[in-house]
Amino acid sequence: MNFTLHQLQVFLKVSETKSITKAAEELYLTQPAVSIQLKNFQDQFDIPLTEVVGRQLYVTDFGQEIAVAAQAIIDQVNAINYKLAAYKGQLSGRLKIASVSTGKYVIPYFLSGFLQQNPQVELKLDVTNKAQVLNSLAENEIDFALVSILPDKLPVQAVPLMENKLYLVSGKEFASEADGLGIELFQQLTLIYREQGSGTRITMEDFLNRMKIPVRKTLVLTSNEAVKQAVIAGLGCSIMPIIGIKNELKLGELRIIQVEGLPIQTYWNLIYLKSKRLSPAAEAFLAYVEREKKLIIDQHFR
Question: 91-162+267-300 in CATH: which number?
Answer without folding.
Answer: 3.40.190.10
